[in-house]
Amino acid sequence: MVASGTNLYASYTGSGIYMHNGTAWSQITPGNPEKMLTSNNILYADFGANGLYQYNGTIWSQLTTGNPADMVVGN
Q: How wide is the angle at C-alpha 7 spanned by C-alphas 72 and 25, nearest 5°?
């Protein structure tokens, strides 16, 4: 579980990532990440062999097809 701005993100094994906007939960992807981090209101998710993605609150963008061993973000 990670927080970004007013949003809370949670990964539920086998069910994907859900976002809570302060009012309700909604699924933002059915995929399950190995790790999630946030920085500057962007969610970063490592989906293993499927690569590293970022979510800006609206769309997912693939950053790399590689599987990172670890992730670190900074503001």
A: 120
